[in-house]
Amino acid sequence: MEIPYTAKIRPDTGLYNAKLGIWLFLASEIMLFGALFSSYILLRVGAEPGTWPQGLLNVPLGTFNTLVLICSSVTVVLGWAALKMNQFNKYRIYQGITILCALIFMVVKSFEYHDKFVHYFVRLNDGTEMNGHIEGNPMFMTLAKLKQQNKAEFVFHPDAPKADHKEEGNAGVAHATMTIQTADVRKLESWGPWHNTFLAIYFTLTALHALHVIGGALVIFMIWGPLAGMWKTDPERYTNRVEVSGLFWHFVDLVWIFLFPVLYLL
Amino acid sequence: MSDAHDAQAVKAAVRKYLIIFGALIVGTIVTVLVSFVHFGEEGSNTINILVALAIASVKAFLVAGYFMHLISERKMIYGILLATVFFFAGLMYLTVWSMEPVNLVHIKADVP
Amino acid sequence: MEKLLGLPVLASEHGQHVDQLIWYVHLLMGALFVGWLAYFLLVLFKFRASRSPKADYIGAQTHATTWVEVGVAAVEAGLLIIIAVPFWSKLVDNFPKETEAVVVKVAAQQFAWNFRYTGPDGEFGKQDIKLVSASNSYGMVQDDPAGQDDIQTLNEMRVPLNKSVVLHITSRDVIHSFKVAAFRLTQDAIPGMMIPTHFKATKTGRYQIICAQLCGNGHYGMASGFVYVDTEEDYNNWIQSKIGGGGATSFE
Amino acid sequence: MQPKTHDTKHHDAHAPDHHELGFWQKYVFSTDHKVIGVQYGVTALIFMFFGFLLMMAMRWQIAYPGQPMPLVGGLLESILGDVASGGVMSSDLYNAFGAMHGTVMVFLAIVPLAFGAFGNLIIPLQIGAPDMAFPRLNMVSYQSYVVGGVIMMVSFFIPGGAAQAGWTSYSPLATLIPTDGQTYWLIGMIFLITSSLLGSVNVLATIIQLRAPGMNWMRLPFFVWAQFVTAFLLLLAFPPLEAAGVMQLMDKVFHTSFFLPTGLAVGGEFADISGGGSPLLWQHLFWFLGHPEVYVLILPALGIVCEILANNTRKPIWGYKSLVYSALLIGFLSFIVWAHHMYLTGMGSKISTFFQTTTMIISIPSVIILTCYFITLWGGSIRFNTPMLFALAFLPMFGIGGLTGLPLGFNFSDLHLHDSYYVIAHFHYVVAPGTIFALFAGIYYWFPKMTGRMMSEGLGKIHFWLSLLFMNLIFQPMFMQGMAGMSRRMADGGANYSQAVVGEGATLTDTIMHLNTTISWAAWGLALAQIPFIWNFFWSIRSGKKIESDNPWNATTLEWQTPTPPPHGNFVGPIEVHRGPYEYSVPGRSTDFTPQNEK
Ligand code: HEA
Ligand code: HEA
Ligand code: CUA
Ligand SMILES: [Cu+2]
Known about the structure:
The complex is a heterotetramer.
Chain A: H1 17-46, H2 59-84, H3 88-117, E1 119-124, E2 129-134, H4 143-148, E3 153-158, E4 178-181, E5 185-190, H5 197-224, H6 230-233, H7 235-265
Antiparallel strand pairs in A: 1-2, 1-5, 2-3, 3-4
Chain B: H1 4-35, H2 46-67, H3 75-99, E1 107-108
Helix pairs in contact in B: 1-2
Chain D: H1 4-14, H2 23-28, H3 33-63, H4 73-80, H5 91-127, H6 135-154, H7 173-176, H8 181-209, H9 222-253, E1 265-266, E2 269-270, H10 279-313, H11 320-333, H12 349-377, H13 386-403, H14 405-409, H15 411-417, H16 421-451, H17 457-483, H18 495-500, H19 510-529, H20 531-543
Antiparallel strand pairs in D: 1-2
Helix pairs in contact in D: 3-5, 3-6, 3-19, 5-6, 5-8, 5-9, 5-10, 5-16, 6-8, 8-9, 9-10, 9-11, 10-12, 10-13, 10-16, 11-12, 13-16, 13-17, 16-17, 17-19, 17-20
The structure holds heme-A (2 copies), dinuclear copper ion and copper (II) ion.
């Protein structure tokens, strides 16, 4: 016996199996991201007043990425519509754009990550605190690594103090390149997730989201390329697959729609 | 399924999708612009948060409702999502409520 | 009833209500269990296949069970409204005035209890988190006058008889739990939080503090802390003897 | 890859039947729900036995703290090294075993057995479906479970050993213990959670989509309903723990401070962390899963018991509809009671009133379910075979466990009972003589369906009576210990606490302490009592009494209306359902059972 309703709709529920399956899965995803959002709210509300950093992220890049994802969401649904109208080639083009958008998104994201990994916080033994870049832009430098590499000193470019946004820690520090003795440093850390609670939740949320982007794009790509033969043999099921992968993709987009204002703007 | 009638409906839908696409882009831009304006009292950004979340919710509604066809989805799916939303709200609300200082007997310890 | 349930000695005022609640709940449980068990055994005997070869399609037609269910719900509601909720509120919302009580700050650490009293001035000295170090585990600000007469002890807490005691409980490292069985009192000690609780001792003696939350490999041995309930006089003498030992640290 | 070891056994058992599918497709990468169900079952039983072994070792340390373990002490030392030096269990090792006993029992034994194995084996058969809705997902779900299990097992052998912060893994302790056990635990959990999520999507889709014609909702066997609710709980409660797990993993690996507050002073030194986190956040997210999880442990058991009760009383279940609604209500409410595990974390009166009220409310549907079962017995013709004995014993055992949940549910009495052995006794009564008995009942009951052979009744009865005796000898004294104030998770069984005080105010009297030894011997007795079962299980696969018909118990539900063992695709012809699940002793019929598919 074949498993029923893999492509056909079951009359009393009005669904085929995979569609129900993906919605159930999305329900669990809502709980997953929901729990992280709740944690974000709690940590933020619970933070000492005035210590929650704002404006750490690059808003233009974020906006651009938001637009890229919205774009990909539209092409997904247009691709599906094209299949419904029997226009396979059009579908190929639309979904191709979707995959491209996913790539662009990931590239932009990796630039944003890189920005953070080469950005440093330094506390000297005399208590001075600064943020800035180390000459040569190494990633993930730490005090221990410096010592290991026997670097007695390094060149540091402190950030320019921002005019209106209150920047963490470097009020009053002159904007000039300086040489710092390793021996003078008490603490050196890049702006990774360990740096503060905001960056912690930022990296956790966006990395998890990025994993979803990669996963979703892979599935869409598989259906688009290697598995496209099914369009010839079983077009109805093929269209369903496109729809189901599309539902997942829209969800990924949806998560970002909330992530963007919450992390970048507020 | 993909009979002629269906294809007609899909054609009409495509127009809808494009309109929504426009709306989403506008929404994004508005969110960004609005974030540079400060509403409400000095030092409180409650209104800003509400505005941003409101726009995001509208956008989410458009994506879920039209791109994901939720508007015309079946009862079963509504049931599942309703349950999920309920439990999510429970998780979020009860946790936040439980951790609100006025509901707790403790204070933040500044020193051990 | 304490004997029957095997509860440990009781030495606090609110404890008698804890015992009461435990007692009443167990009465409810006992009634349900004995009642159903009797029914159960009866039915197993009466309707065993050899005695009752043909089953009855309809079975029992009774509404008695609904009443049992309603009864259980009603008793639970009663206990909730009459004992559990009001006494809990009393414990967490109605604190005795700190001026009329003995106030003790409790800080747990792996694997010991630190206590701090205000001393005669009734005021705790200032503390600053940045000053915390191995030699100054409370982060005391050294030249604050209010701190000069503070009393710090390790694993030894003394309280007077029949006087309210307010505890402010926190932890320095992981979560511990301050439990004194004789007081029917348990309160988690959570780092980053200062949690108040209170009790009134009703029996002199020496009571052990149990750490009731897994806190590492020494959890089982976090056993050297005691609460001594003294008479008012003994207590005051003890306080006097401690002053002067003031700012000294109790760490290690 | 991983599942090889036990599948070989399975292969032997089935060696005679031939198929064009190769060994790998048939037994390792199978997508047939029955094979996957058996894989789940055997793997879970092995883990269950392993969880029990951990506990037996711990019980030695509790009864005879500090003394070298006989027989296994040297073995442990040579495998695990310093933590068991001289064959004595160190407190590190005790904590690791304790945490892993909880984890293994809950996540690697009971859930996979009750939900993975029984769900997979029985649901499609009972609803008249050819397989699960997503067979390949089903396979991945099993594999993910095995990977998670292997990671958990590997963690015993890494330097420092397995996780030591309890199965609840409270931060900051879980984060601050410098060894890597917790990291393994978290990664393992992520695989296990993934497995459960895929499994629950599958079960839900199967029940909603693949019911045979005529199998409408109110004709579903209660077992299917129970699994349905269970699947919903897993689907929606697990993701928050996954989120929490990811955050704790970040804390552990990337030194973030999600669950670490500002101002920790570990070992007297001010800890250099970014701070700003909240230890309570972990507890909320953990218990948001934790509480629904306990109903995940009990609902399938209630379902199994229901099937067996109806079958062996030869009459319909009394109050089928109230059972269904109660199960739904339990599922629904279980999401809003979680903070009853956190009464002593500094809650104000509003919150605790809310949570203790919901806790009391949730006990009512449990009472209703049990009542329905009891009333079902009235007017029956009760057969006392092994499955029925286990199912019957389940009732009072779950009763004790459930009832003792009540004093814990009131925050004011929890003040004394929290984290004492009373809690341990409470939940073991529900999961050990409760759920495990129901699972034993299920194994004895459905064994002939899968193998075509019965398990031995004689051995079964020995297994039953001894298990019942020892279970009670183990867990009853724990109530007394808890009442007297003995705390759980004590690597020395409370010896330090009892020795420190003499005379008045002594926390633990000698009588209470002596119970430790009694309990431990009973636990080892329980182990011996399992030998007849293990023997019975493997022996009967090959040599049990052959069943004469496909329906040896004269049951009504659909799983008995197929060939034995069911072929790929389950049913030979199209199947149609005409009646409710428990039509036993219908007046005017020639037999005392009327199958669901009979007109
Ligand atoms: C299967 C598992 C399971 C089940 C079903 C339950 C059921 C219940 N549990 Fe339990 N519980 C656990 C597993 C379970 N629990 C675990 C694992 C822990 C500890 C976790 C940890 O800290 O490690 C725990 C801890 C726990 C606590 C926290 C204690 C503490 O840490 O201080 C509380 C508090 O409210 C509680 C309450 C309840 C209640 C009110 C029920 C109710 O649902 C019970 C309702 C049932 C009844 C009321 C019985 C009705 C029966 C009859 C009326 C008939 C009886 C008579 C005869 C049969 C003859 N449980
Ligand atoms: C489902 C959950 C479950 C189950 C079934 C059990 C079963 C048992 N548990 Fe445990 N236990 C927990 C979950 C469970 N436990 C948890 C969550 C904790 C808390 C951990 C923590 O503190 O973090 C705990 C803690 C705990 C403690 C307290 C430790 C402490 O606080 O220091 C004790 C003490 O005695 C204990 C004992 C036992 C015993 C004797 C059994 C026995 O009932 C075991 C019975 C087992 C069997 C009878 C196995 C039968 C198996 C077979 C026969 C296999 C056959 C194989 C084949 C056929 C292939 N458990
Ligand atoms: Cu401190 Cu346990
Ligand atoms: Cu619970």
